[in-house]
């Protein structure tokens, strides 16, 4: 089994590593592009080619240790995925490690957010994504990806960033004071939205990041590549400030649908995951 970023020895040690990468290879035939189930393996494969020195922070997060866990198996229903992910992420949080969950579709996020909300008080969930996922039920499942944020919003305050598509349920259930539409972000030349978003953060934060938050021009390999997404460096700027201002306690990255004919989106995802771990190490672990 390959470790994230090709690390070996003490830098993958279960006891010493600060970061635990949990692969959850789950998608269903209801997904427009079920290739998301291959995302965790593809991300880890792409991570083997990362240069591990970060040019932004001038740091090397691998020195804090990245432990790669066995992928979750027997994922045969939305409900089971939620329960298994919740159990495993709870174990990681109880070890006082930082969980980095690699999905799969957004159903994965429900279980991970449950664990975070059960473990921490004064916690806000931040969703980065194109779709606000506020349906009550979709194709007979209450826990399909399209319903994920409906469930998470019942657990903790929810901030949504980069949204540009929603159904009627989404309009009814959304909190307009805590949703930052991609269109408004694009036309806000003074970036006022950033301070508005930071003002609603709490002490603790859990992040769920769907790769479709990015514009399809840089991230075409997602199930529903909605036009008008965020630009890469704006996403990084936003993430960096969240880590600087709050205690981010965990993360899931979902939604990548690997394309063997275009490896750039997969490599981008691996780089983004590594960059996010770098921000955590800098602002929480004294890197």
Question: What are the defining features of this structure?
Answer:
287 residues, alpha/beta, eight-stranded parallel beta sheet, 9 helices, 16% strand, globular
Plain-language structure description:
This protein is an alpha/beta fold and 287 residues long. The protein is 35% helix and 16% strand. The protein contains 9 helices and 8 strands. The chain has helices at 39-47, 78-94, 107-119, 148-153, 168-173, 182-187, 192-199, 232-245, 264-284; strands at residues 19-24, 66-68, 98-103, 123-128, 158-163, 179-181, 204-210, 247-254. It has an 8-stranded parallel beta sheet with strand order 2-1-3-8-7-4-5-6, sandwiched between helices. Helix 2 (78-94) runs parallel beside helix 3 (107-119). The chain is globular. It starts with 18 loop residues before the first strand and ends with a helix. The model has no long low-confidence stretch (mean pLDDT 94).
